[in-house]
Specification:
single chain, alpha+beta, 2 strands
C-alpha cells in the first residue's frame, strides 16, 4: 500500500471515529438522563466501500450513565 493511500485511510477512519462519537453523545443528551441512565443500547456500524465490494459490520453495546 502506498503512503498516500495509508494516510488517506487513517484520515477517513479518524473522521468516522470523531463524528460518530459526537453523534452518539448528542443522541444521548437529547434522550435525556431518564431514558439513558443505567440502560444499554445496541449499536451497529456498517462500513461500505464502493468499488471494493466491501461491507464490514460491527455490532456492540453502548451503556448509558447517570450524571
Amino acid at each position: 500500500m502506498s503512503e498516500d493511500f495509508n494516510m488517506s485511510m487513517r484520515k477517513f477512519l479518524k473522521q468516522v471515529g470523531v463524528t460518530s462519537q459526537q453523534a452518539i453523545e448528542e443522541a444521548l443528551r437529547d434522550a435525556g438522563p431518564d431514558k439513558v441512565a443505567g440502560k444499554s443500547f445496541k449499536a451497529t456500524m456498517v462500513l461500505r466501500i464502493e468499488g471494493l465490494d466491501l461491507e464490514h459490520r460491527i455490532e456492540g453495546t453502548i451503556s448509558g450513565r447517570s450524571e
